[in-house]
Amino acid sequence: MIDSRRKFLKTLAVGIIGGEVLSALPTTVFAKNFDKGIEIQKGYIVFNEDTQKVMEALAEALIPGSKKINIKDKVMNYVNRDRAAATFLDAGMWNIDSLSRSRYKKPFYSLKDKKSIETLLKYVRAKNGVFFNQFRHLVIRLYYADPKVWKELSYNGPPQTKGFMDYSEPPKQIK
Fold this sequence. Notes:
Largest sheet: 2 strands, antiparallel
Order of helices and strands: HEEHHHHHH
Number of helices: 7
Number of strands: 2
Radius of gyration: 20 Å
Shape: globular
Number of domains: 2
Strand order of the largest sheet: 1-2
Structural class: mainly alpha
Helix content: 55-70%
């Protein structure tokens, strides 16, 4: 194959798809114990047990059914690889939990009333939109990258890496 812009784009596309597929693999493949959180620096831990519960409740509020695909472990694997995102998202989770505790006198993950949850989500979306949008985008990406979700949507999986991605070569004849 001749080096070309299309070859570069093909390689880039395969890398991106591969990364998405790897992030959706069962977490037992990359088994790590994040029960106590992630230590960013010595003594500085993010995503402790309470924060993980808030994160899981927020993911479930944004995409019902995300607990079924073990979204908590998927997010924890992601933030373990991206420490800057871990710190940023941890602060956002802390903010939501603080708002919940001050307004409803209980942690966010303990809220059962949908109206209370929606009120907090609207407030956070308006006041901390960058956090909200980044977390929502992450959860949606991880959710739809899971093969269990594909089956529910009658989707057979990502496209094969075969095909005619580089149009500088003629298609092969099928016999």
